[in-house]
Specification:
The complex is a heterodimer of chains A (127) and B (370). Chain A is of the alpha+beta class and 127 residues long. Chain A is 20% helix and 35% strand. Chain A contains 4 helices and 9 strands; from the N terminus they run βββαβββββααβα. In chain A, the strands form 2 sheets. Chain A has a 6-stranded antiparallel β-sheet. Chain A has a 3-stranded antiparallel β-sheet with strand order 4-6-7. Chain B is α+β, with helices and mostly antiparallel strands and 370 residues long. A 6-stranded mixed β-sheet of chain B has the order 11-12-13-10-4-14. Chain B has a 6-stranded antiparallel beta barrel with strand order 15-18-17-16-19-20. In chain B, strands 6-7-8-5-9 form a 5-stranded antiparallel β-sheet. In chain B, β2 and β3 form a beta hairpin. The chains are: A alpha+beta (127), B alpha+beta (370).
Amino acid sequence: MNLDANARYLESHEWSRQEDGLIVCGISDHAQESLSDVVFVELPEVGTTFSKGDVFGVVESVKAASDLYMSMDGEIVEINEALEDEPEVINSDPYGAWMIKFKPSDPSQWDSLLSPEQYQEVAEAEE
Amino acid sequence: MAESFNRTRLYQWHVDHGARMVPFAGWEMPVQYATGPIEEHRLTRRSAGMFDIDHMGQITITGLDAERFLNRLVTIDITKMKENEAAYALMCYENGGIVDDVFIYNLPDKWFVVVNADNLAKDYDWMYEYDDGMKVKVDDVSLGIYMLALQGPRAIELLQHLTPADVTNMPRFSALEAEVAGHKTLIGRTGYTGEDGVELFFSSNHVEEIWQRILDTGVETGIEVGPVGLAARDSLRFEPGFSLYGHEINENITPLEANLGWACDFDSDFIGKAALLEQKEKGLTKKLIAFELTDKGVPRQGYIITNEDGHEIGEVVTGLYAPTVDKYCGHAFVPPEFAKPGTPLNIIIRNKPKAAIVVKRPFYKPAYRS
């Protein structure tokens, strides 16, 4: 299982990174591996506002659909449209295959996310 | 949980080779291996895939009246089958609903019927009920017989290295008994992938050796071959338009509704024929269609289908991303007026209508049918 040391995580396996005042999100290596081949990802519209814990999208593998959760409150400012045509990048490069960028409305929520070490424990407990 | 499921003799091999085991029809079967279902699908289309399908059932029918007995049970006319020929057929209830779909082998000393794992007990009981005092013996021989499939454009070439028999020149849907890797095997030039290939039946005691010999021979000859799980088996059978019991067919669906009229010989007397003739006369109320999404999304079994006006007209029975044709697509039952290719539909995915269109079947023309 690979981890991005610069990211923070949710127990539901989404990673978040801080970039230029925005939060960038995707799913972890552990998540892509348990999903196996990703065949589709459904992303929100730019401008949508979500609260921490809301479902912002869905990732679909060959056998199942899984919800994607917001790590913090915020407004979507960009989505990775390239994933529509190449969802398999989520498998091959999970930390490069970002899904959304959002502007956080409460940056202090960052501190509630799991550190790489904490997330590793969560993921390993699942294996 | 694991205690209540059957395991094939290759269970440990699968686990050791990165398989994910899932419950299927009372068995713990590999749904995929480490490379993932899409690569397994592509491997089968490009070279050769091997399938542990020992969960499938086999029933033999012998005795003086065996032919007469079986011919009443199935929708084809088996009296027209030559020796060592295999054929696809259905077993129907009196009302035309489908008991199971089966592959029948006309072997020199018996009729050999391959049935779905989930339906084995039901099929056996159904056959038993209909013996009507005929001189016939119905035996479930599934336990002692192992079933493997080797499928793909290079499957025959690969198998030819393992048997003295001339499999290269075997016609499609023929069977022969020969040694494979030194063990007596019934070879059927049949399969469920839309590719050329074989299904092999042999004594369960030899499976580890035969399985390994196929893999080793692949390495020695440079013919790419690898194990394929149930997920890819599903996408491989879907693309050429083959039915899967519990999806395209079940006890509430007739062969006519499922586009399987070609597997019914109405010159032959079979159980369910009267109901099917009546249905032909009256017209169908639902029909199996293939569709593809023009919007993006993954259809799944059970999703609702609506017409352009938003009225519910049917339900998805198979839905997936089909790797070879690179489409989000599926099968569904709709009233016949919506079954014409080109008809626009909506698939309701997570409460949102996604545009789809009825398309001609199959998505993938079987390689051996050219």
